[in-house]
């Protein structure tokens, strides 16, 4: 039997409200089940049908205000006095990570159920066009101290989206030393954006009601994180949704967005039933075949570039595609995700990338609150941003975003991990540890517009032993900072360069394209997060780069 068109399915008779379709999975070799009329799929308490709820993945929830300069003060705020003393000591042991339970078996099951491919195939299907250089228009978001080398601007709906906010950036220079991917000019860049509209699911108290109802916007769903893969040769890009694999209560393999628990509220929202927020994805590193994504409260989630699931192989969204497991996939419905009533969904995205490993901090969380972006001198750090240093032995750099105006005892810490240790943990058994080999507290004492200079850090790179930090400044130009390790009173500390450089509006993560593979000059890439708004009419989202040689020169007295 052929797969009916969406028009035919939508004309199908409606099922009585409240009923749950429970079609059986066809035996191996049987004809794929026809697509299900959208009105036939109902759910109790959210887009996952009752009885198929996602189990808690054991991750701690994150504050919605994570890495937000305008976040309200938390209950333990100390006013705007901030941290003014000496830098906190860096304790490498606080940064220790350990592998969680293996997800390989679950991802293997997804690979058997759905078409699986790698990044090359995804990039060949890039469907969104960026603006390049002068086509981006006026350069109003950029400060006077740093000359942009390249500018890339998003397609209009991504540039203005109130739902998806770009945060993290990485690229082929992180992935491999020779940068050899596709054509010599492809130089892929990957950007992560988080779902900033976090109403949760089945939030009756906020009037969101049930997210699969026709009256509810698809923004009702917490979609977590998506990654946009950009090809510099074609100037095209494509989104992929990050997902977490699990086996539902009906013993079927499925996946959901990367957050810890589905909302199951039916009358009012309580702590016991509300959905958790998606992760912020403030930093990301592509290394080899793996994509490391920062999970602020927990550590890092790891994805495999070779294991991307394709929900629309024929590239024709008008017809549901049969899948290897005998079901079908739907890329039009933006309100459902995973396997529901024997149809596969991905919130409307063609490509989804399942998590393959977890790296979680082993140190205990400090007892103080972090709801206002407070940080503490000891205990578990926050994975606010990450980057890769290839200028020596490959290391991953991890650091904290903190707001000292809201309390806490530290403006932030940074730690470094040998990539050999992280790779071994990703590939090893549960509990395999990856220790940091270095840790520093951020410099202290300097001020900027009456507040601490060395806090509100959104990104970091270490290049030839020197550290560079991106500091945000709400809806205004941020700053690029420089620091070097120096002996102070017998202890090696990061000491800040008194010279600071004005950066873009809404500066975020940093990525160093070293250029060694293609003979290009090193470039420092970053991106801006703010879309134009009434609060910031001059804001604009861009990816942009600076020549690293000019950055170094600009920091000289």
TrEMBL record:
Instruction: Identify the keywords attached in UniProt to this record, alphabetized.
Output: Signal
Keyword NAD in annotation: no
Acidic residues bias located where?
54-69
Keyword Nucleotide-binding in record: no
Where do the record's region annotations for Disordered lie? 30-93
Bias (Low complexity): 30-46
Q: Which residues form the signal peptide?
A: 1-32
Q: What is this protein called?
A: Secreted protein
Organism of this sequence: Streptomyces fulvorobeus
